[in-house]
Amino acid sequence: MNAPAPMALAGVRVVEMGQLIAGPFAGKTLGEFGADVVKIEPPGAGDPLRNWRLIKNGTSVWWQVQSRNKRSVAIDLRQPEGQQLARQLIAEADVLVENFRPGTLEGWGMSPDELHALNPGLVILRISGYGQTGPYRDLPGFGVIGEAMGGLRALTAEPGRVPVRVGVSIGDTLAALHGVIGVMMALYHRKVNGGAGQVIDVALHEAVFNVMESLIPEYSAFGAVREAAGSALPGIAPSNAYACTDGWVLVAGNGDSIFKRLMATIGRDDLGAAPDLADNAGRVARVAEIDAAIGDWTKPRTVQQVLDALATARVPAGKVYTAKDIAEDPHYRARDMILQQPTRDGYTVEVPGIVPKLSATPGTVRSNAPHVGDDTDAVLREMGLSAEQIATLRDKAIIQ
């Protein structure tokens, strides 16, 4: 039997105090690469994500992904004794993840200064709607608001129509991923520069804004306000979605040589050979004509017929996948991006695999998502509490 692969974050202890999406997604990512993630949940219902979207055997199937590789400790943080337990946990941790409204930790006597007095090496990841400073810091902010303020929502629409949601909580996830990057940089800095921790301040709207490409430089240099463009890629041609008899296909024919191969494939060598279409600027000027030509070719064909023809011509193209398409796709399976994961609710569910893929220290699913407070006793015993002390805390409803 092969020895288990080493874990990149083995030995790193994370205390997760967030709930729902942004903070817990950061904790999930750290846990998949070996961190020991101890999730503090309120007694009773626990993290509200447990009851979001589709429920099976009493628990959201989303929870099974978001909370794998975590241990659940149910502590009532509204009570001073619960706050003291949290401080004891954090005193021995490497990382604290929280996504409460700014000021919540401070109200519990757990400001960064107070926590660093207990644990100078602590890395504190704080994710919030607007950040820990600035005139909006105290406003409530969810991911959708961050997407709007960050500039994304204005672009996710057909021209002249209502801005729409991307379809997933992309603002929360982008904030979480930026937070994980910050945690890794802070841990590295701590390792090579004397052991001091620091605070990572991630605002939802700033994480979205950070991926908005040329939005602000174009406004600064030209006064250009980028508008919604539907499925097209503004300023790049041709790159769009085109209707087929049984769905939609995305075609990216915007490279100079790729464009010529695409036009040959659709029987429009006249466009492929046109001198003014030899570069992107010329194609952008005639994008409506080019899109119409591609659409006329795809319309009487199936998605698979289009994909086969464009693959032969080495033109990038892809189907618009649904959940069913993903679950049945052999490439996803070949790269372990669909995993069979047992649950503590008595069934097995297919879940997304782990990204990124590291060659020497790959991520793994080591444990399934816990019930509320499954690990309370074990974690408190690790902290040195006796069975009698744990029983007393449970009798007082400090823990579950």
TrEMBL record:
Keyword Transferase listed: yes
Sample GO molecular function, one term: transferase activity
SUPFAM superfamilies: CoA-transferase family III (CaiB/BaiF)
InterPro entries, A to Z: CoA-transferase_III, CoA-Trfase_fam_III, CoA-Trfase_III_dom3_sf, CoA-Trfase_III_dom_1_sf
Keywords: Transferase
Superkingdom, taxonomy of origin: Bacteria
Keyword check for Transferase: yes
Pfam families in the record: CoA_transf_3 (PF02515)
Matching PANTHER family: L-CARNITINE COA-TRANSFERASE (PTHR48228:SF6), SUCCINYL-COA--D-CITRAMALATE COA-TRANSFERASE (PTHR48228)
Name of this protein: CoA transferase
